[in-house]
Amino acid sequence: MKDRPLLPLPPGNLGLPIIGQTLTLMRRPKFRQENRQKYGDIFKTRYLGMNFIYLYGKEANKFILSNENKYFVNSSFPNSKKIFGTNNLTWQRGEIHKQSRKILSRSFNEKAIQKYITISSEITKFYLEKWSNCDAIALYPELKNYSFDLICKIILGVESASKTELFELLNNLSSGIFSIPLPVPQTRFGRALQSRKKLFHKLDEIIIQHREQPQNDALDILLQTEYLSDLELKEQIINLILLGHKEIASALSSFFVSIAQHRDIRDRLNREQKCFADSQTLNLEQIKSMTYLENTIKEVLRIFPPVPGGIRKVIQDCSFQGYQIPKNWYVIYDLKSTHQDPEIYTQPELFNPDTFNSLNKEDKKQPYSYLPFGGGLRECLGKELALTIMKIFNSILLRNYDWKLLSELDLETSSQFIPTWQDVKIILIKSPQVSGI
């Protein structure tokens, strides 16, 4: 019996030995879009000594996300394992990953989320009041402080965490991911490793305090299980805080920018909020009833997904659409382009919350077509908490404040990659008639 002929590799250019097309990518931000236009929805390239295959479209999303642990395993940049460790959901596989998700989910189920509503409301009101007394604020940096304070309060019970050493240490960890892996203090990688040690020491102190005096937060829930070792617990906490606060800050920034461009949508949001104006406190039932706000947030996440895609390592030779995908290569899937696919969404370039209303439900028409929180076995564990936080923040914002951007933005350009809105400044104005929320 003759061997089956080997399928070809996808089209593309691997570039120079080892470094591949790393320098080209650094010089040309639209390098990936240019490759897609040239080669199509599947192409190969090489960065930093690693071979990559890019795959675009809902079928590619399905192929990759539904074959976790069969053909693919989660991956990231090489420095990540050394900085963040391997005892968190990012790297865990199989039964260990399943068990960890089950345990961690106890901190993010509906019963737990109900306890976090008061915390979220209080911190939101504090920040919005502070911002309204400023001439202008730098949007994304301030929202990073807000989301960091909120996530650290929910998970660790720490007050005003953005003003503590925790904030600096976690930022140092993040800055070491894309750096030369020289473990000396003068490098970003070295500072990241030093910060890891200091951060673990801080978390040890917090864990001891919680064991002596529980604070009814997420950490207390996690400490009730004997499954997690202290090392795994600390690495899981770091992972949750880093991912959670950055994604929430990005999504809320995108909401501010998007709604500032669409006065008609803002008016409709305000009309919905008037239904809850007599209430002095929010509860979960009310939050769930804010359907137009929820659809608006979903539309923000469609156009500006906080996580634009993902990386997987190939653990077994496989094929897709007539091309071979070799073992030990890496695949990258892109969610952003799927969210903009005209075969899925009607007028995908338009900002339209009714995309998600009960009549249209365009995100439900085809599987793997709407994935702002990822999908498959690694769908974001805290997505319901994140959505609840965003609804609380935006509800209080809409009832009590107006805002305007201090500069015009090119939303088409801004939406090419994950948005952070680093240079955006806004003025927050307290509304004449304040609801008291």
Outline the fold blueprint:
Elements: H1 22-27, H2 31-39, E1 42-47, E2 50-56, H3 58-65, E3 72-74, H4 79-84, H5 94-104, H6 110-132, E4 137-138, H7 139-156, H8 165-175, H9 188-212, H10 218-223, H11 230-260, H12 263-273, H13 284-289, H14 291-303, E5 309-314, E6 318-320, E7 323-325, E8 330-334, H15 335-339, H16 383-400, E9 401-405, H17 411-414, E10 425-430
Quick recap of the structure?
The protein is α+β, with helices and mostly antiparallel strands and 437 residues long.
Report on the architecture of this protein.
- With 437 residues, the chain is of the alpha+beta class.
- Helix content is 48%, strand content 11%.
- It contains 17 helices and 10 strands.
- It has helices at residues 22-27, 31-39, 58-65, 79-84, 94-104, 110-132, 139-156, 165-175, 188-212, 218-223, 230-260, 263-273, 284-289, 291-303, 335-339, 383-400, 411-414; strands at residues 42-47, 50-56, 72-74, 137-138, 309-314, 318-320, 323-325, 330-334, 401-405, 425-430.
- It has a 5-stranded mixed sheet with strand order 1-2-8-5-3, sandwiched between helices. A 3-stranded antiparallel sheet has the order 4-10-9.
- Strand 6 (318-320) and strand 7 form a beta hairpin.
- The longest helix is centred in the middle third of the chain and has 31 residues, at 230-260.
- It is globular and about 70 Å long.
- The termini are far apart.
- The model has no long low-confidence stretch (mean pLDDT 90).
